[in-house]
Specification:
With about 475 residues, this protein is an alpha/beta fold. Helices cover about 30% and strands about 20% of the residues. The protein is built from 15 helices and 20 strands. The strands form three sheets. A nine-stranded mixed beta sheet has the order 7-8-6-9-10-11-12-13-14, sandwiched between helices. Helix 5 crosses helix 10 and helix 10 runs antiparallel to helix 11. The chain is globular, with a radius of gyration of 22 Å.
């Protein structure tokens, strides 16, 4: 099996037999199918899910000549295809991929075709917020700047625009799985590689943290001395990555950097940066629209990357100060009966929930729970004295969380079998001035398709509450 496209001409794929494995609901499969179908390739889409589950993605492909094999995979489709485009959720160990001649992803195809300067962002948590904030700043420099990747926007959806503006930067948020798919291809050499942090995640997919870290390391694997690697100095993994990269290391930290270290840090409520021996410049102002000390660090890292790419400190401060965040990540939904509601459905690990709980100076009613990913919920002990109430949604991870919660002597409501019951309970217990925070700390597959489906459901339930 070849795991790269070899001599295939991906820019002119007319007549090529292309198999898209895993259509999914996040846009990568649809963008891949559209890219090749529009250019005359013979496209087949195969997915283990049924037509009903894939309805939104199938609707996006209506009107194009695409063959579908749904609810199953057929090995003959893989062996007869010139090229297989895989979904990042499909492990490379899949026996079907062993029959493939060449394997790519939407990200690797994009990187083979586009020569734009790339800023790549990864990490266990904070990568979507950091990438989105950075994109907001860079748009002030170049309105043709694009954002894609794990943020549910496939870069193939803007490949033509990127190729028409080859000097415009591309911000790519990359998950560990997306990075793993790029291993050995030599297509990712970001001008700036930014690693927000490394926390236990996806431990149901990895043998341990070292294997997980190996995939994250791929973000800087092909960098050289002319590139920058931005590392979190507060994180032990960040310090390890800094020793391993060939890129020029620039730090970000919650405390002032040692003399001679270059990068950015928090001082009081402001974020300062030093790129040379000059006096530090302010890149993050004291007033931000996005709540949470962890988000101040995310914005600090985004501001440092923007500074390295030529943005002026005043522009960075203004753009970051007005950044309101993105859906499902401490997203403010509004107030009902004097109670503020926040959607943090993208908090899929307990560390993210702990950070979210610390983000408010008002009483918090926490709604959490979901599917287990072989994670340790002991980290919650440090914040269990913060929530006014803890409301639980049923799931395999919830049982583990209950052990920690009850072990700390805290009471809880539920677990409820349905999110609507949990929201109704929290709304009933909340008083004017309180915050209802939906920050599950777990995956969502027992009740929802994914964390975005879960977040949308929470949003609709809040909308239905009396005002």
């Amino acid at each position: 099996m070849r795991h790269d496209s070899g001599a295939l001409d991906l820019s002119s794929p007319e007549g090529m037999r292309v198999l898209v494995m895993g259509l999914g609901l996040h846009g990568g499969g649809v963008a891949s199918a559209l890219y090749f179908a529009r250019r005359g390739a013979e496209v087949t889409v195969t997915d283990l899910r049924a037509e009903r589950e894939l309805a939104p993605s199938l609707q996006a492909l209506s009107g194009f000549r695409v063959r579908y094999v749904l609810g199953r995979h057929d090995e003959r489709d893989f062996s007869s295809a010139d090229l297989v485009i895989k979904n990042p959720a499909v492990p490379l160990s899949s026996p079907y991929l062993k029959a493939a001649r060449a394997v790519e992803t939407d990200v690797s195809v994009f990187l083979r075709l586009a020569g734009n300067p790339v800023v790549a962002v990864t990490g266990s948590k904070g990568k979507s917020t950091t990438a989105s904030a950075l994109h907001r700043v860079l748009l002030a420099l170049d309105p043709r700047t694009k954002l894609g990747g794990n943020i549910t926007v496939s870069p193939l959806s803007f490949i033509d625009e990127a190729r028409r503006a080859p000097r415009s930067p591309i911000v790519l948020e990359l998950s560990s799985w997306q990075l793993a798919d790029l291993k050995g291809k030599g297509v990712l050499r970001p001008r700036v590689a930014l690693l927000t942090n490394l926390l236990p995640d996806h431990q149901n997919r990895y043998a341990g943290m070292e294997e997980y870290a190996d995939d994250k390391r791929l973000i800087f694997a092909d960098q050289g001395p002319g590139d920058f690697t931005l590392c979190n100095r507060d994180d032990g993994w960040g310090r390890r990555f800094a020793r391993e990269t060939r890129g020029a290391v620039r730090w970000f930290s919650t405390v002032p950097l040692p003399s001679g270290a270059l990068g950015a840090w928090l001082e009081g409520s402001s974020g300062l940066a030093r790129l040379a021996s000059d006096a530090p410049v302010e890149i993050v102002g004291a007033e931000l629209k996005l709540p949470g000390p962890h988000n101040r660090v995310n914005l600090l890292a985004a501001g440092l990357a923007a500074l390295l790419l030529g943005a002026k400190p005043a522009v960075i401060r203004e753009r970051l100060g007005g950044f309101e965040g993105i859906p499902h990540r401490l997203q403010f939904l509004g107030s009902k009966a004097g109670v503020a509601y926040y959607n943090d459905s993208a908090a899929t690990i307990p560390e993210a929930t702990a950070a979210a709980v610390r983000s408010f100076d008002r009483p918090v009613l926490l709604i959490m729970g979901g599917t287990d990913k072989s994670l340790d919920f002991a980290v919650l002990r440090s914040v269990l004295d913060v929530p006014k109430e803890i409301v639980l949604v049923a799931g395999s991870a919830t049982a583990k969380a209950i052990e920690v919660i009850e072990g700390a002597g805290r009471a809880h409501q539920g677990p409820f079998a349905d999110l609507s019951e949990a929201v109704a309970c929290a709304a009933r217990l909340a008083e004017p001035g309180d915050v209802v925070l939906f920050s599950p700390g777990a995956a969502s597959f027992e009740l929802f398709a994914n964390e975005f489906d879960r977040g949308r459901r929470f949003m609709s339930l809040v909308e239905e509450l009396p005002g």
